[in-house]
Amino acid sequence: MFVGDSFTVGSGPVRTWETYATETARRLGWQPVVAGAGGTGFVNQGRVGRTFEQSYVAELAWRPAPDLLVISGGHNDRRWTGPTVRQAAARLVWSVKAHWPDTRIVMIGPIWMDGAPRQAYVVRDALAEVAGRERVTFLDPLKQRWTSGGRAAVLLPDGVHPTAAGHVRLAQWLVSALRATPVPS
Fold it and tell me: Can you give the residue ranges of the SGNH hydrolase-type esterase domain (predicted)?
């Protein structure tokens, strides 16, 4: 299962079944369940009026426990302080662990296809701290160079969201990272 923002659920011409989340699932032979909404985050409620934790409760928690839950985001939390993001992320992880104690969790930090602002790194660091403390695998997309080969290939005209090809690149990265990184239980 995946819970996240517009990068996870799709935006613009990229539909949910074309995102990096579903492409990752296809490549790994998984049956994906994708939850969340554009504009949301660990703290930010977006236009839908709910955080990742609220999306988890509404869309996922009532389902049978998955083998793996990928929590992906933080892009929309850049206006919040590190401690606020840390607290919200920890609450979500605690909620998942209490409800699904045998489910492995992977947390993906904020995705910025090009030119992340300084505050994105504050959010990334807060999430990495939570992941380390809670024994959750943390993957950092800010370390990647997504636009090598040209911005137009990976970025929609809004300059923020990935194209279908950008989602494929994200999926390739995530599949490789999941295969290379032991996921703590």
Answer: 2-167
